[in-house]
Specification:
alpha+beta; Pemi-like Protein 1, Chain: D; Translation Initiation Factor IF3; Methane Monooxygenase Hydroxylase, Chain G, domain 1; 3 domains; 9 helices; 8 strands
């Protein structure tokens, strides 16, 4: 419930307000206790009992695996606990659930950053999250995701052009690395949002930027997914595509990589003009892909044409996600300029 307090002046120079009696009792405070006052970038103030300010609470959760539910359900439930920010998660298993337990352990090893199985028995596993924000900040996470995704684009197209199924499999495996960074970034964002007393990291100027980061990391994760999709198409090819088609797709790959790279840079650097360039390039690139569709499909048999269509669609979608990133960069750039002008 919101309570209103009128500002008063005492001693000719000090402004004071009274604190709600109910809140004082809830916090167990008395006369003489210290209140920490922290200003936020948006002009609001946070009041908190000083004794709690530096306390790190170890958050533990217990998840009971249901033998009537699939492994996928168990993993989704576990990920929810991980993303919310629990420091340790104990998963309990009933008899005959070894497959569930092994699948969960494999998922933790392959898909999560900073999560380790530290205790295990036939009936439980205890998983602890040990990485802290300052060890892998959000900006660094985003940069690593984008570099991984960019090289995945290049190698996926190479695998498709060169009929290289080993390289295609490698690209698909790398998608797990991007997913690991993605889930870690979402976990960090949720922790920052839920802890209103936490100091904002250097890369985030205002709390409203959390949503922008959330959209950007998801867009990068989707770019990597489409690179893996291209690699999967390469795996399903029955023969090498023609040299002419290879040149077309190689050119498309180089162009979309450049668009994606500039989009991420425009976001990290809050570059207004670069954001506009990316959006314009993306629109132009999408039109080019559409104009090439008939030409590409007319030079291939039905099965190859289906694979070519899927690859072309994924390349176009990478450009679309790049434009989404640039739009977020544009919004944040304008907000930054507005703040500076005030």
């Amino acid at each position: 419930m919101k309570e209103l307090r009128r500002i008063q002046k005492t001693g000719g120079a000090t402004y004071i307000i009274s604190l709600p009696k109910r809140w004082i009792k809830q916090q167990g405070l008395n006369v003489g206790d210290i209140i920490a006052i922290e200003p936020l970038p948006d002009g609001n103030l946070i009041l908190s009992p000083y004794r709690f300010e530096e306390t790190k609470i170890h958050r533990e959760a217990v998840l009971e695996a249901n033998p009537k539910e699939s492994v996928d359900v168990l993993i989704r439930n576990f990920v929810a606990y991980y993303l919310v920010g629990y420091d340790s998660i104990k998963v309990l298993f009933k008899e005959g659930m070894r497959q569930h337990k092994e699948a969960l352990k494999n998922f933790v090893r392959e898909k999560l950053i900073g999560a380790e199985v530290i205790e295990e028995s036939a009936k439980h596993v205890l998983i602890q999250c040990i990485v802290r924000y300052n060890e892998l900040p959000l900006k660094k996470t985003l940069e690593r995701m984008s570099v991984l995704a960019e090289f995945m684009i290049d190698d996926a197209i190479r695998a498709f052009i060169d009929f290289d199924k080993d390289l295609a499999e490698e690209v698909i495996r790398r998608d797990n690395d991007v997913d690991r960074f993605y889930l870690y970034a979402v976990r960090q964002l949720k922790q920052l949002i839920s802890n209103v007393r936490a100091k904002l990291p250097e890369e985030i100027k205002r709390p409203r930027e959390f949503l922008g980061y959330r959209i950007v990391v998801k867009s990068i994760e989707r770019v990597a997914d489409h690179a893996a999709r291209i690699a999967s198409s390469a795996n399903r090819l029955e023969k090498c595509i023609s040299e002419d088609l290879g040149k077309i797709f190689l050119s498309l790959s180089r162009n979309v990589r450049a668009i994606f790279r500039e989009a991420v840079t425009s976001f990290l650097e809050r570059d207004l003009s670069s954001s506009h360039r990316v959006i314009n390039k993306s629109v132009e690139f999408s039109r080019k892909c559409e104009s090439l569709l008939l030409k590409i499909l007319s030079n291939a048999d039905a099965r190859t044409a289906a694979m070519l269509s899927l690859v072309l669609d994924s390349i176009k979608r990478i450009a679309d996600y790049s434009a989404d990133i640039a739009e977020i960069a544009l919004n944040l750039s304008i907000e930054t300029l507005r703040k500076r002008s005030q």
